[in-house]
Structure formats: structure tokens, C-alpha cells
Amino acid sequence: MFLEFLSDSEAMELNLCDVKELFENEKFSMAMVNSLIRTTIMTRQIVADIVFGSLESRIVSFLHNLADEQHMMVRDKKLVEIPFSIATLSNLLGAQRQSVSTIFNKLIKTGKLIKYGKSSYIIA
Length: 124
Fold this sequence. Notes:
Layout: H1 20-24, H2 26-51, H3 55-70, E1 72-74, E2 77-81, H4 86-93, H5 97-109, E3 113-115, E4 120-123
Antiparallel strand pairs: 1-2, 2-4, 3-4
């Protein structure tokens, strides 16, 4: 497991032994398990989307999955904030930075993405 802090944050440590009563509560335990299952399924889908398909479809699918994880909306449309550079995304996708940049520009030109700030896009 790892954490990445993208802005100033306060990290807190939680010892599970100190909160074992919470896990004795069936509703809490089931909520935790369901949350882990949803996260695992979403992560597997993101990995599958990155590995298979055309570069454009992989980018679009990745953006949708990331937006679903971030739960942000603007005017009833998904808003996605990309927490890393196009170069980093290119490395994740195993593609040339220029190819990923070209596809982003194409998606913006065709109206499938709308730039919304420095690293945010509305998925149209």
C-alpha cells in the first residue's frame, strides 16, 4: 500500500488494535469490505484499460475511470483532474508523450474533452 500527497496534508496514524470495536460492528465491517471490493474492481478495470485497446480508447477509458474515482461534476458532466503530467501518463500507457499529447488535443478539438483549468478536464 502507498499514499501520495498531492497537496499540503496532515497524515494521521490509526492502530487497528485501538479501534477493534469498530470491526465488531457488522455494518461497519461490511462497509469496509464493500469499499475494498469496489476499489479492487476499479483498479483492475483501470489496469485493463491501460493495457488493452487503441491508445485513444485507453486514454478515454482511463479518464472516465479516474473521474468516477474522483466523484467531481460540473454542469452534470464528469470532471477529471489529472494528478500528473502528460509525460507521466505517457509512461503509464507505454506510449510516446507526443502521441498522448496529440490525442488529448484531438479530444479537445472534437469536443470530447473541455479544458477546465491547468490539469482538469470536463468529459463531454
